[in-house]
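Inputs:
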Amino acid sequence: MITVGAAPIDAGIECAAISATGAGGIATFVGLVRADDGVATLELEHYPGATEAALAMLAARAVERWGLIDARITHRVGVMVPGDIVVFVGTAAAHRAAALEACAFLIDRLKTDAPFWKKETRGDDASWVEPRGSDDAAAARWSH
Amino acid sequence: MGLELVYFAWVRERIGHGSETVHPPADVVTVAGLIDWLAAGSAVHAAAFIDRTRLRAAVDQTFVGLDASVIGAREVAIFPPVTGG
C-alpha cells in the first residue's frame, strides 16, 4: 500500500498493518527528521500523482524481485520538525532475507526515483537540500 | 491546445509560480528545446534554467532526460534532482 500525505506517521500503526499480512518475516525502515546543524523545520514537496505512481512502481518491482507477500510505503509531505517520521517502509515475506533486502532496496531507490524535494529552515534561513552522491551510489547497487 | 508546465522546489520558487500553460512553436520538439524557448522569452525563466545540469524533467508524469520528445505531450514538469526519503 502506498500513502503520501501530510498526516503524522505512527510507526506502531504502520508496523501493525504490514504485520497483519501473516508473513513469517517483516522488515521495516523508519526515517526521521534529523536536527542537523540546527534544523528547525523540514518541508517536503512532492509531485502529486507522479510521486504515488513512482512509489507504486518501486513497490511492485520489490514484490516481484523478492517474492514479497506485501510492501508498504508511507511518506509524509508538508512541514515537519526534528523527530517527526518522514517515511515508513515495510516489507512482508516468508523469510528474513527477502524482507530485509527488499526493504533496503525500497528506501535506497525511493531517495533517487520518487519526486520529493526537501527544504530545511534554520532560523531565518531556508535552503533546498542538495542531492548526495552517496544516495546515487546506494541506489545503483540494486541495478544489477 | 496548450502545453501545461509544472515546476517544483527551487525551480518553482525562481519562476514564481507552480504551473502555467504555454503554446510553444512547432519547432520546439524536446524538453531541452522547450527550456531554450522559455528562457529566450523571459529573463525570469532564463535565470531559473541557467544551469541545465541541475534540471530534471518529466513528460506526462514519466521521468525523462532533457533530450526527450515533447511532441504530443500534455504536461511537462521541470524540477531539481529529487531529495526524498
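The first strand of chain B starts at residue 3 and ends at 7. Flag for discussion at group meeting.
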